[in-house]
Amino acid sequence: xxxxxxxxxxxxxxxxxxxxxxxxxxxxxxxxxxxxxxxxxxxxxxxxxxxxxxxxxxxxxxxxxxxxxxxxxxxxxxxxxxxxxxxxxxxxxxxxxxxxxxxxxxxxxxxxxxxxxxxxxxxxxxxxxxxxxxxxxxxxxxxxxxxxxxxxxxxx
Length: 156
Fold this sequence. Notes:
The chain is α+β, with helices and mostly antiparallel strands. Helices cover 22% and strands 38% of the residues. The protein has helices at 2-23, 53-56, 144-151; strands spanning 24-31, 34-36, 43-44, 60-69, 76-82, 85-88, 93-96, 109-114, 122-134, 154-155. The strands form 2 sheets. Strands 1, 2, 4, 7 and 9 form a 5-stranded antiparallel β-sheet that branches. A hairpin with a 2-residue loop joins strand 5 and strand 6 (85-88). The chain starts with a helix and ends with a strand.
């Protein structure tokens, strides 16, 4: 009887661990290099989405990390976007929680523009995002729109 009880407890513990593992995760996506040629017209990267729809189904985004590689010593205006809006990026690498709460299977993309009119055209490489996701009930109570207004860093 005691052995049966232990097996039941261990079995339930294993099921709980399996549920926790499925409750959160991350996906990584990359986009091809983009040529940025103007300061007054933004260029958009290809969409970056989960490798499979099932990977992030019924999940919401948490922290999103990004990176891209400009030529050495050159800066560019950069934003990370999804269908509902964009976040201005402070540099070629970093993370944000501005997308927290939106569906984790949403595609993301970069937008770039030169900083100055006299700046030479450039190619940006290594475009990548890492999206951490989890079940919606773990998301904060603030809506995505509230966080965008509060952060002061988001532009639509």
